[in-house]
C-alpha cells in the first residue's frame, strides 16, 4: 500500500509537511507504521496549485528518501493546496506515468488501495472511461483508471456522486467476474479549490486515513506526521471527508456492493 498527504490552507512551503516533520511522508516512505508494507519505495509524486487553475506535478520513480530534487523543490515551492504521495506498487510497473498524483485539467487525484482482480477486469474498467478522458491515460494503474472513470461520470459537476457511481460500477464488474479479492479505496482528490478524501473498502479493512486542522489549514494523511496521535481525527470507515469553501464535514460513502 501507499502513503499520502493533502493540504489546503494558507500557503506554506511544501517541506513543512513533506519532509520536515518527525514522521514526515519522506520518513514514511522508509518506515510506515500503519501500512501493510513498511517501505513505500516505488516512486513518489507531488502536485500543487499556485498561479494557474491546473496543478503543477513532479513525479519520479526513485524512492522519496533518496531524491535530492524532491527536497530542493519542497524547500522552495509554496502552495495553499498540494498533494504528496509515496508509492508501494501493487502489480503494475514502477514508472513515472504510474506514480501519483494524477492530474487532468483542474483536477488532481491520488489513491491508496487496489482493485482486486485488476488484471482480470482491467479492460472492462477502462471501458467505463470516455474516449476524451481515455486520451489522457498515460499509465497502467487501476488508480488512474478510477480517476478517469470518475471524470467520465461528471466529476466536475457532482464530485462525490461521480465517485460513488464509479466505485459501484467497478464492484459490479468484480461481482460479474466472480472476483472475491477486495476493492480498497482510500483516496484524495481536488479541483484546486475544494478537497475530498475517501475511506472505503468492500471488506472490513480500508487503508487508514486521518485529518487535522490548525491555524494554517487542513491536513489529510494516511498516517499522522508526528506521534501526537491524539491531535489527529481518524476518518471513519465508509466515509468521505470534504472541505468545500469553509465547510468541513464527514459523510457516509456507500457505493453499492
Salient structural properties:
257 residues; single chain; Glutamine Phosphoribosylpyrophosphate, subunit 1, domain 1; 7-stranded antiparallel beta sheet
Q: In a nutshell, what does this entry contain?
A:
With 257 residues, the chain is of the alpha+beta class.
Care to describe what's here?
The chain is an alpha+beta fold and 257 residues long. The protein has a domain at 3-112 and 186-252: Aminohydrolase, N-terminal nucleophile (Ntn) domain (Glutamine Phosphoribosylpyrophosphate, subunit 1, domain 1, 4-Layer Sandwich), CATH 3.60.20.10. Helices cover 23% and strands 31% of the residues. It has 7 helices and 13 strands. The chain has a 7-stranded antiparallel beta sheet with strand order 3-2-4-1-10-9-11. A 6-stranded antiparallel beta sheet has the order 5-6-7-8-12-13. Helix 4 (118-126) runs parallel beside helix 6 (142-151) and helix 6 (142-151) packs across helix 7 (159-176). The longest helix has 18 residues, at 159-176. The chain is globular. The protein starts with a strand and ends in a 5-residue tail after the last strand. The model has no long low-confidence stretch (mean pLDDT 94).
Amino acid at each position: 500500500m501507499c502513503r499520502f498527504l493533502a493540504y489546503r490552507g494558507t500557503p506554506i512551503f511544501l517541506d513543512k509537511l513533506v519532509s520536515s516533520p518527525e514522521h514526515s511522508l519522506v520518513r514514511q516512505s522508509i518506515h510506515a507504521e500503519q501500512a501493510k508494507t513498511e517501505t513505500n519505495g516505488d516512486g513518489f509524486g507531488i502536485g500543487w496549485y499556485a498561479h494557474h487553475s491546473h496543478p503543477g506535478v513532479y513525479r519520479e520513480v526513485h524512492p522519496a528518501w533518496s531524491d535530492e530534487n524532491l527536497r530542493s523543490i519542497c524547500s522552495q515551492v509554496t502552495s495553499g493546496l498540494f498533494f504528496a504521495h509515496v508509492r508501494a506498487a501493487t502489480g503494475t510497473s514502477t514508472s513515472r506515468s504510474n506514480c501519483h498524483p494524477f492530474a487532468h485539467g483542474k483536477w488532481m487525484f491520488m489513491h491508496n488501495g487496489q482493485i482486486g482482480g485488476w488484471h482480470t477486469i482491467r479492460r472492462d474498467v477502462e471501458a467505463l472511461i470516455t474516449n476524451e478522458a481515455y486520451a489522457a491515460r498515460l499509465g497502467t494503474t487501476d488508480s488512474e483508471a478510477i480517476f478517469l472513470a470518475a471524470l467520465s461520470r461528471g466529476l466536475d459537476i457532482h464530485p462525490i456522486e461521480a465517485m460513488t457511481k464509479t466505485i459501484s460500477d467497478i464492484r459490479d464488474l468484480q461481482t460479474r467476474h466472480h472476483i472475491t479479492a477486495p476493492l480498497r479505496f482510500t483516496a484524495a482528490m481536488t479541483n484546486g479549490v475544494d478537497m475530498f478524501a475517501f475511506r472505503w473498502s468492500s471488506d472490513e479493512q480500508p487503508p487508514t486515513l486521518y485529518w487535522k486542522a490548525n491555524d494554517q489549514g487542513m491536513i489529510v494523511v494516511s498516517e499522522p506526521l508526528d506521534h501526537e496521535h491524539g491531535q489527529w481525527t481518524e476518518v471513519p470507515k465508509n466515509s468521505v471527508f470534504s472541505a468545500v469553501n469553509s465547510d468541513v464535514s464527514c459523510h457516509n460513502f456507500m457505493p453499492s456492493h
